[in-house]
Amino acid sequence: MPESEPRLLDLRLLPFAGICWAATLIGILGGSRAAWMLLATLSGAAVLLAAGCALRSPRRWTAGTLALLLFGSCCTAGVAWRVQAVEQHPMTELARNETWVTLVVTPVDDPREIAGFGRQVLVNANVVEIRRAGETIHAGGAVVLLAPADGWLGLLPGQDVLLRGQLSPPRHRDLSLATVRVSGPPAEVGPAPVHQRWAGALRSRFAAAAAVLPADEAGLLPGLVVGDTSALSREVKDDFTATGLTHLTAVSGANVSILLGAVLLLVRGVGLGPRAGAALAAAALIAFVVVARPSPSVLRAAAMGSVALLALVTGRRKQAMPALAAGVMALLVWAPELAVNFGFVLSATATAGLIVIAPVWVDALVDRGWPRAVAEAVAVSVAAFAVTAPIVAAMAGTVSLVSICANILVAPVIGVITVTGAITALIAGLSVPVAGVVVRLTQWPLWWLVTVAERGARIPGASVPVPAGPAGAVLVLGAVLAIGAALRSPGTRLVMVGIAIGVLVLWAPIWPPWLGRLV
Which of 497, 464, 322 is nearest to 398 (CA)? Predict the structure, then answer.
């Protein structure tokens, strides 16, 4: 049989996404001065390159390099202006002095309970008004609220909330103006926008339909389908963290792909053209982002979906890497704070790993005689772990050693849960009792998912502590590269297989109590 042609990736947009992300990071972490210095450097390099081209015939790479420098200069100028606006904001000085103020704010997502702080919630919000000493300042900007759960848990995004709290400097450098500590319920709460009331009602009805399942499964299903983890127990969250399954409760590209695929399939079935299909898919995508809330992974997936829709309308073939790069650039220009958001970094990195690494490993395993379905499951899990483990180590100071096995074990049920859950959510908007009947189809797949997480987390050494921050990332990255290099040698592979068998034998005494419950 003739060998298949290698699949070439279109990487032309990758340097542009890289310089956009780097410029945004430097601006946010280094401040406006660092951003303006970077702008001067990039602009000066662009001028020198353009002058060199005018004096002699340009080389093949000159136009691309000049375009990259000019694009980087534009991105740097944008982030420098944004950072400087935060530094000069009137609330920044008030936060340094830990001043008490009265604010009107608008939440941008649902309040989330904070583990280990009693009944406290965290709310991301935008400032509408600052009231202090008889003066009202209309100046926008992002703030983080720390408030008691009573009176705050039921708030919806888009509501105007009047509160009084004490300002303090932001906990992270992410373009937020301040942290606001509130000691009581809101003084006044305005009505939510119509679309947010609809989204909140749909999420509530879906959660009510899922309540017919056992408690752990009922709390997990809304997280898998629409990112609602409010009813997810602390024990399940900890088990998912220990086994590297936390990413499943963050809505991602899989959900968006299923949504767009279903809409386009329906459109094709009724005979509409690609433009009408793209318009309907775009409307469904916007509705999904509203219901699932604009978390970093949802925004990244939605951006990629938008690029794919544009490719459909223009008749161009969709390519994953250009879609990812374009989505990253669009989001960083629109919301630069995503550059320092671990969720966004994990989402983009995992997607890039699945695009670049996983297909190569799938082909290599298939060439060695592996069934394609098994090869895809193993390659996807290993690739995702390899590229995200250093980031998780920096973020959480821990590495899950059972992540690959756990993800392979649950892979067959994720699609079933996602599809059935999405159908249930739609039905719940019409009838909760009917949705309660349909949702029972997810009970066994959800039980399997919860059981794998629970039993995997109980394995000795399932999660290994490492230094948090850059040191942990470098340590884990070095370990991943060393293992990857070692596996290229047949002799080393045999040694590692022997080590794995030895570990399994050592763990054998703990298997019987739970192995029977898995099979």
Answer: 464
